[in-house]
Every structure is written in structure tokens, then in C-alpha cells.
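Appendix B. One record, verbatim.
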Amino acid sequence: MAADTWDAVVVGAGPNGLVAANLLAEAGWQVLVLEAQDEPGGAVRTAEVTAPGFRNDLFSAFYPLAIDPTPIGRLGLEEHGLRWTHAPAVLAHPSVDGPAAVLHPTPEATAAALARTAPDDGEAWLALFEGWKRHGRAVLRTLMSPVPPLRAGAAALARIGPRGLLPFTRFMLLPVRRMADEQFTGRGAGLLLAGNALHADVPPDAAPSGMFGWLLSCLGQDVGFPAPVGGAGELTASLVRRLLHHGGALSCGTRVDRVVVESGRAVGVEVDGSPIVARRAVVADVDAVALYRRLVGLDRLPPSFGAALDRFQRSWGMVKVDWALRTPVPWRDPDVAGAGTVHLADSIDELALASAAISAGRLPTDPFVVLGQMTTTDPTRSPNGTESAWAYTHVPALIDDGGRRRPLAQGDVDEVVRRVEDRIERHAPGFRDRIIARYVLGPDTLEQHDANLVAGDNAGGTNQLHQQLVFRPTPGLARPETPVKHLYLASASAHPGGGVHGACGSNAARAALLHHRLSRLAATGRATRSRAGRPRR
């Protein structure tokens, strides 16, 4: 049986894999994307899992990192049917004993609201956002670029200037608690920063939690927290339509058994015993450990690589709940009702305690909750007068059970759901009475739906400093190139990590294109030298 032959085979149809495939197909390559699940999207999918007529985003839901200047934002997906929508307010962080902190669509409105409880904080918020306007997009492009980010980094340095470099570097390395203390007098603005920082697994007293808080807060202020009309799956659908438009192909329900390596080079993949040839590249939107251990095999890698891979650290796990609600959430504070995203934590101290509990292998007594009000954001998500809502919270990857670490059991997941709903009920009395149906994903079921969400890790590995930049996924392997020639890592395990931005896939595709061009130039040079060396007759 003759093998299928393509210029590139992309393993995995998550957003990174689809971005890589789009860029390669746009460059004229023949590209095949193989996806183990029955539908594309990875952690960007929508389904009716609670009640009829309620469309639920199974994993991610809001996409500030899918807007220009990130790689997904530069693909022009609006030309392929993608439409964005926004809630009346970007984000709200309610308080048990005061008004909610609200991130409004304009910085002036946010500043005015913050100034009502802390007069100096309005101007401080505008000053913080002014720093974003000066440097933010250049910094974001730098963070999204391969290591070392020569062109983007030079542009960012030019904007920051030599005098501003050290102060700005210090600012970016601040823990979010310290950043809040230095910038603001009240607690509302600090909670906005800290809540956004805790989307990652970096505690509020550790670096670079301040950078994460600043980045997401200012993105929310700049572009909002947009959601696709019709559900997260519409973002995936537009990526697929663009890929097909450029001649690429997609096969779902197709699990890759191994990457075929010959003489240190990836030459294709194997599916059900049949080879699929990749003339130029294999691009893997696959968890790094699964790629190297299962699909490649440590015997085909340098001897020290296995030990480095053993030190790869997972991010925190996650429990996610979707609800079909008969009415919108009955928030005690009406300012929370119009927010697409809601953060629930009483203080930065509480965030620190929850982070410490997770690190110690315990379920937080008062979990930090991120909640999405999807019908408030997009009325197509559920019947009129109802709400399609979800929430997630971080949990330990392994529970400490009397000195023994074990995966979360169903009883643990049920307890987390109870604590999450208790927390919502404190701010929205009567919330439970509105529940028509719920759908729960624990760490193990998240991984079953998307193999890259290992034990509920939605970041492709920890976001802490020791596993960023040149340390991701292992020390010295910061670029998408791997120890196997023509094999490129495109998942969130690669720099710059988690988030629906497409940078991991973009970096992998651009590396493959560059290496192919260099190979052709080298071949042309060899041919020229060969002809020049022939004796004339």
C-alpha cells in the first residue's frame, strides 16, 4: 500500500496546530492535520452538554489573546466567518462588604469607578494603562516571538528606552501583591490585577504574577474579553475554513501512533500501522512529555533528555462546571450582572492561602473562582431570559492523602463543585435555585476530552519562572525545534506557553519554513559548487 505523502503533517487540531497548518498552507505547502478527537479545536470547542438550547464552551471561552498583534489575531479570521461579541462590562470582582471592582470597556469608566472608593486610584489606573499604551503591544509581540526575540525585542527596547529599561524590567518581575501595593491605595484595583494574575498557576507573592495581572487587565481594557458569536467552536470553525481555503486538509478521529524517525530526522507519522510521509516537517501540537516519550521514544533522543523531561512540571489541575440557569445569576451587587467574566475571592491574602493549599496538595477551603456569563455576553447561547454560565477553579494535580499523593477522586471533584457553588451563593443568594442542569469536568475527564490537558493542566506546564523562556519545556530547548530534525513542537508545552494566542503554532510553522528555505539554499550552493568544479571540455 502506497503511503500518503504531504509536505507537512500536523499532529493535533487545537488552536496551535491549526495556526501552524494555516501558515504552512498559506505558504504553498501541502498540509494534512490529524486529530485524535472526532472534532477539531482542542480546548476551543462548544457543545450542548447541560440542557437543550444551552450552548456551553467546554474549556476556554474568552479570547483577549486572539486579537492583533497575536498570531491568531493576524490571520484575518473575520474574513472566514468569525464574529466577536462583548459583554456590557469586561470583568467584575465582587466584594462581601463593599462595591464590586469592575473593569469597564473604557479606562476612563474603570478609573471613575475605582476613584469612588479610593480617590487616588482613578488616576493611578489611567497611569497604569498609559504604560500599556506605550509599551504593551510591543512587549506582547516580544513574548509571543521565538527565543531570542531579536526583531520584536529590539522594537520593544526602542519604545522603552535605555533609561526606562531597568524600572520596566523590575515592574514586569513584581509579584502581583507588590505591584498592587505600589500602584494603588484601595483594594479594588489590586483585586482586578490579582484575579487576572491567578488565571495562571503563579501565586500572588511570586514573580511574574504581576506581569500576568498587568497583561490581562490591560488587554481587557484595550480589546475587552471578546467571545465568538455562537460559541468558542466558531473560532475553531473559522480556523478550519481558512485552512481549507488555502488547500490544507483535516482528518478527525485519526490517532497518530508514532512519529517515524529515520537517521535522526522525522519523515512522517504512522496511523493504524500505515505510514503518512512528511517530506518537509512534522509539527506536533502535542504535550511535550507525550510527544517525546510516546510518539518519538526516548531511545531516539539524546541520553540526557529523559532526565530533563522528568523535571518537566505540570501546572495546577482544574475543575470546571457548566450550568444551564433558568434566569441570569441573581448577584447581590447589580454591577456584577453585566460582566462577561467574574472573579470570586475576598482578598489577595485569600488568593495566597488558596495557592498555598494547592501547592501543598489540598483542596482550598475558599477556592478562587473564575465565572463566565455567556448569555450576558452572547444572547445566542441560551433561550431568552436564561443564562449559560460556567466556572472553573484550580486544584492540586495530586491530592495529599496522609502523606501519599494520589489523583483526585470523584468525591474530591464533587466537594470542589460544592465549594464553588457555595462561594457563588454568598454573592448571589438563590443561585442554586436557578440551576436547571450542570455538567462537570474534573482533571481526568478534561484530559479525556483533550489529551493535552494532562491531569487538568490547561497551561501545557507551569507558568512559573523556572519553566519559561529558555527553560521551556526543558533547559536550553526554548525554540520549537526539537532534538529530531524536521520535528517541531507546537503545543503550549513550548514557549510562550498556555493561552489561545497561536504563538506556539506560529513559531513552529515559521521555523519549519525557515529551515526549508535554508536547506534549499544550501542545496543550490552545493549544486553550483559541483558544476563549478567540473573540468571544462
